[in-house]
Amino acid sequence: MARPMENHTSPATASNESQSIQEKDNYAKVIQTNSTPIPNKKYGNSNVKALYANHDGKTAVIFETREFYGVMEDECKLTLVGKFIKTRPQIDKISEKITVQGKVQIGVFDYRTVFLDFDNEDDCKTVWYKRLIEIEGHVMWLEKWSPDFKLEEDSPVVPIWVLLPELPFHCHSWHYIKQIVAPLGTPLMMDLATENRTRPSMAKVRVEINLTKPKMNSIWIGTEDKSCPRKGFTQKSEYENPPKFCTNCKILGHSILQCRRVDQKKNEEKEVTGNSQSDKTETNEKGTK
Ligand SMILES: [Zn+2]
Known about the structure:
single chain, disordered N terminus
């Protein structure tokens, strides 16, 4: 009997088994996260209990890391952040542009940032997948809220389409496809043609990827069981228009290769080394005299 994919331990290229098992667990988690229920955020979770301590001479309230970045974070999983490059439009203008089935609360963070709090997952997803919305000539960039949210930094986590050309047709089902793309990021949904099975030449799936992680241009898909040794093939995975993210500035819109700040830094360093070199020549000249 064929083993299900979840029990398949080491990927074909993995050299370190324990690492691959840990990664596999992460992929399993990634696949599960889609269906967790939304907790009550008005009260919070009564199981979360902070400790009081002393930190650098100050009274400190300490939360458990896995609760602060888990249970508590989940309570805001339907919150998106809308960022404008310059001053944002009026809240009612933003509200008009956000079409939802349920309710959305718009909170003002500052003159160019708003928080969008949804009451259901479908609305939150529909809006987030747009990545940007144009309102009165201003572009609102959307990102998922996280406990590490910083006004001056953009989140490198974005939803993008991943194309899987010539993926075997029997893999064009959500349960299989989400396992195939899990190493790339969190699988979100298939496109309509894949779902309706009307484009057998290629599957297309939306995946939440982290732009700071290396891009995966292919995945190795294999089969094995007791009577059949492992064999497989390389499946291409193409990212459709991934946005650029600068790891130096920590913002979307340009890559580190196009970063002016990095160029500036290099030029400054050049000037400094240039100066010190001319200093040396000067001393040498003086020395020879
Ligand atoms: Zn930059």
